[in-house]
Write a structure and sequence with these properties.
Elements: H1 2-21, H2 28-75
Length: 81
């Protein structure tokens, strides 16, 4: 959730910075701030996507393990020799 909150914050900051940079009277500093904000937003979004992918992989492995456990318990204990 921390990444999502950071992304939300960077979205607001980036939108404001881009609005200021779009003013015809804006100088190089406004453009530099807008580019820096957009880069920060992109990095946070990329990290959020990577975290989501790791979570999806974890959930897939956990599901496979649970299915294997169910299958093993359906068969019952092995016959004693």
């Amino acid at each position: 959730m921390v990444l999502q909150e950071a992304a939300d914050e960077f979205e607001v900051v980036t939108a404001d910075a881009l609005a200021m940079a779009s003013d015809p009277r804006a100088g190089v500093t406004a453009w530099a701030l807008a580019l820096e904000s957009a880069g920060s937003l992109a990095r946070v979004e990329r990290a959020e996507l990577a975290a989501s992918a790791r979570w999806a992989e974890h959930a897939t492995h956990a599901r496979e393990l649970a299915l294997r456990a169910l299958d093993a318990t359906r068969r019952g204990p092995p016959d004693s020799v």
